[in-house]
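Budget justification aside, the reviewers requested a transparent look at the raw inputs and outputs of the sequence design task funded under Objective 1. We therefore reproduce one unedited record. The lines immediately below are the structure tokens for a 160-residue chain.
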């Protein structure tokens, strides 16, 4: 039996975490890892104790804010970082695996928190229909490694 790469394991976990999202518009998952250990996880959705969008607004999702974004949702990257901080876990030098490349706001936070590398599955720019991945551009500009995931998500948890 061949052993799966850690990148494949963490990205598969991020994909599965995305399935936990209550967002109507998009499901996103994130995993923070350092030295082959998971240090935090997250998925997009409303803050704990508020409304789950798919329960409260099953047709259209939560109301939009003044810029057209979700008025309740915390992004998966933010949730993973917040959970780590809440539990007094440093994310300095960590790698973030995320199913959608970070938006500009998340990228600013990722950089500020000292995450050294981001590996993403799909492009935020393609999803939003915009010309470039502003978040990726920001991270690269300030020295954070960023790469599109090109691993194998098929059957890595299949046991013989």
């Amino acid at each position: 039996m061949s052993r799966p790469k850690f990148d494949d394991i963490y990205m598969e976990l991020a994909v599965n975490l995305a399935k936990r999202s209550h967002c109507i518009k998009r499901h996103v998952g994130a995993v923070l890892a350092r030295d082959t250990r998971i240090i935090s996880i997250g998925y997009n959705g409303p803050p704990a104790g508020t409304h789950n969008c798919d329960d409260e607004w099953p047709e259209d999702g939560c109301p939009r804010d003044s810029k057209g974004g979700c008025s309740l949702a915390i992004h998966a990257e933010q949730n993973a970082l917040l959970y780590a901080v809440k539990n007094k876990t440093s994310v300095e030098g960590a790698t973030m695996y995320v199913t959608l490349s970070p938006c500009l706001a998340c990228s600013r936070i990722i950089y500020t928190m000292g995450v050294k590398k981001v590996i993403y599955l799909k492009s935020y720019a393609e999803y939003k229909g915009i010309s470039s991945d502003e978040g990726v551009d920001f991270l690269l500009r300030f020295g954070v490694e960023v790469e599109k995931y090109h691993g194998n998500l098929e059957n890595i948890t299949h046991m013989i």
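The longest helix spans residues 6-18. The first strand starts at residue 29 and ends at 34. Computational costs for records of this kind are itemized in the attached budget.
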